C-alpha cells in the first residue's frame, strides 16, 4: 500500500485534473456497457447501440471472428456475435476495441515502442483468462478485461511525467525496479495512478483493484483472486518477452499470489507453457489495425 506524501498528493491531483485531456471510453462504448449490465437488455438492444458507430462495429466483428473466442463459423452481424458469444465475451471485445487507441501508442520513458503496450496488455489478458480456467475461477472473462486494463497508468505517466523519466531510469540502472523508482521520484507508481484514473472513469471496483494492485496483489481488498491472476499473468507475459520495456526484466513475482490460487512451484512451468502457447495461438488478437 502506498502512503502518499503531501507533495505526492498534490502532484497526483495535478495529473488527475489533466486526465480530462485523455478521453475515457467512448460514449458509445459506455452506453453499450450499461446495456450489458441491465438484466432486461436483449441482444438487439446491445446491437442497436454498437451499430451506431461504424468503426466500432467493424472492430467488434473482427474480434468476434478471432479464433480465440472459439466459434468456427464466420460471424457476419453484431447481433449474431452477441447471441453466439454472449454478453460477457462481447464486453471483453468492447473494452479491447475501445482501448486499442490508448494502448497502441509509443510510451516514452518506459521504452515501449508503438504497439508494444497493446501487445503486452492483450498478452496479459489472454494469459489471465487461460490461468483463470486452470484455477477454475468462475468467470474467466473478468480477468481478461482486467488484463487489458492493468497498465493503463503507464499511458498517463508517459504523457504527463516525461521530464522525470531520466531520474527514474537512473534509479533503475542502479538496480531498483521500475515501480520502486517511480515511487522514489513521483511518490506513487503507474499502478496506483492507473487505479485513480479508473476511479475517475467510473470503472467497476473489480477492475480498479486489478489495476491498482497488479504489482502488489496482497494489498487487494475485495477481489484478491482476480488481482493475483492478473499479477501472475503479467509476470508470465514479461518472462516470455511480451511487451518488455524498461521495467520488464525486473518484475518480481509475489509467491503469496500463487498460494492464494493454490498453485504449487512445480505447477508453474506447466502453467507458463500453457499461457505462452495461448499467446502464440491467438496473436491475431494483437493485430487490430
Automatic annotation (TrEMBL):
Q: Which Gene3D superfamilies match?
A: Hypothetical protein af1432 (1.10.3210.10)
SMART domains from the xrefs?
Answer: HDc
Q: Which Pfam families match?
A: HDOD
Recall the GO molecular function terms of this protein's record.
Answer: hydrolase activity
Q: Does the keyword 4Fe-4S apply?
A: no
Q: Which residues form the HDOD domain?
A: 22-217
Per UniProt, the keywords (alphabetical) are: Hydrolase
Mind telling me which InterPro entries this protein's record contains? HD/PDEase_dom, HD_domain, HDIG_dom, HDOD, RNase_Y/CdgJ
The HD domain, residue ranges: 117-239
Entry superkingdom: Bacteria
The protein's name is Metal dependent phosphohydrolase
Amino acid at each position: 500500500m502506498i502512503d502518499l506524501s503531501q507533495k505526492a498528493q498534490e502532484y497526483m491531483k495535478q495529473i488527475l485534473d489533466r486526465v480530462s485531456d485523455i478521453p475515457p471510453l467512448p460514449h458509445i462504448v459506455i452506453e453499450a456497457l450499461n446495456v450489458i449490465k441491465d438484466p432486461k437488455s436483449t441482444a438487439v438492444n446491445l446491437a442497436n447501440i454498437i451499430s451506431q458507430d461504424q468503426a466500432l462495429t467493424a472492430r467488434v466483428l473482427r474480434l468476434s471472428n478471432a479464433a480465440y473466442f472459439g466459434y468456427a463459423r464466420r460471424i457476419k452481424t453484431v447481433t449474431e456475435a452477441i447471441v453466439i458469444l454472449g454478453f460477457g465475451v462481447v464486453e471483453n471485445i468492447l473494452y479491447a476495441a475501445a482501448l486499442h487507441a490508448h494502448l497502441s501508442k509509443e510510451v516514452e520513458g518506459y521504452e515501449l515502442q508503438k504497439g508494444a503496450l497493446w501487445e503486452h496488455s492483450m498478452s496479459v489478458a489472454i494469459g489471465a483468462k487461460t490461468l483463470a480456467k486452470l484455477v477454475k475461477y468462475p468467470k474467466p472473462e473478468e480477468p481478461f478485461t482486467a488484463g487489458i486494463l492493468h497498465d493503463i497508468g503507464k499511458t498517463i505517466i508517459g504523457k504527463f511525467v516525461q521530464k522525470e523519466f531520466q531520474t527514474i531510469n537512473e534509479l533503475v540502472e542502479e538496480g531498483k525496479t521500475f515501480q520502486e523508482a517511480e515511487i522514489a521520484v513521483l511518490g506513487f507508481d503507474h499502478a496506483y495512478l492507473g487505479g485513480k484514473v479508473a476511479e475517475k472513469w467510473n470503472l467497476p471496483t473489480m477492475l480498479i483493484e486489478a489495476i491498482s494492485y497488479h504489482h502488489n496483489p496482497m494489498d487487494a481488498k475485495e477481489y484478491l483472486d482476480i488481482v493475483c491472476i492478473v499479477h501472475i499473468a503479467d509476470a508470465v507475459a514479461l518472462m516470455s518477452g511480451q511487451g518488455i520495456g524498461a521495467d520488464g526484466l525486473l518484475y518480481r513475482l509475489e509467491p503469496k499470489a500463487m498460494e492464494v490460487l493454490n498453485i504449487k512451484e512445480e505447477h508453474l512451468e506447466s502453467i507458463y507453457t500453457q499461457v505462452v502457447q495461448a499467446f502464440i495461438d491467438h496473436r491475431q488478437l494483437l493485430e487490430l489495425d
